[in-house]
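In the present case, backbone shapes were mapped to integers, as reproduced here:
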Amino acid sequence: MQNRYARQIILQNIGEEGQEKLLASSAAIVGCGALGTVAANNLARAGIGKIYIIDRDFVELNNLQRQMLFDENDIGTPKAVAAAEKVKAINSGIDVYPVIKDVNYTNVEDLLKGVDIVIDGTDNIQTRMLINDVCVKHKIPWIYTGAIGTSGMSMNIIPEKACLRCLYPGVPKAGSLPTCDTMGVLNTATVIMGSIETTEAIKILLGYYDEIESTHSNLLVYDIWKQSFDSIKVKKNEKCECCVNENFEFLESDEQEIITSLCGRNAIQITPADPKELVLKNIGEKLEKLGTVKCSDFIMLFKNHETEISLFRDGRAIIKGTNDEMVARTIYARYIGT
């Protein structure tokens, strides 16, 4: 420990006792894109003892501009797996768990309950509201962070203080907010915002919890291009549906099959109501006569003149080439089954 973490241990803010706390801590990173890869890299090097990397997607060429753990050899590999392999190579003394899942109301509590902190690497407000519900319900600190264009924002969501619903009481509809796919993003913005949120995570794990001067619930807004930095105080909403009324409406969905339009990608994601562990090789063999198939332990890629399907072991599939839910359902049923 002394050699690996020497430069941290001599910091007055950490010391040997603080490093022991970090090694005994656990963190879940939800989403392993631009922010998530920065967080995974920073937390692994800092010596967080257990890191869960949760992501539903696989590496594509256009990710490499900003997703710092990946290279060209990772294209086609699930992001959680590729990131975990890189992190293990960075620090073999910690435990890293890749989780290839779409975070939704059916699994989010099981995925996050019990960790010491949750790091936001997601790309949509609906998933963040799910995280907020779970973390408020189970009193888990989490850090909301986003970056787009040349700017980003971050806010610590600490138990008993303001939550994300206090900041956004009226939840924006899916697709109503700009995304990296539609607006673009400068990679230095994501590196800076990812570093800000992991710094806050380390502070919280070290116990700088009630020190208002050090760890607070302000919304930090930074524009790297304009070199502007603002800190906005967020007050707890005494009528908040989540942290005051304990109405965890995002967890209490009555939906069955989950269908998500992937903004800017001309693709629909389908998550079956009753996820089952699939044998991808067997499905791939059946589809070979209908198109080209590439198969690994984690993902099967199928392509023909009609469509392109990425199928994961839990039955979740990304149907490319359409934004129509009914068309995507039909394609899923035709090639994968019901």
Summary: The first helix runs from residue 6 to 9. The first strand starts at residue 26 and ends at 30.
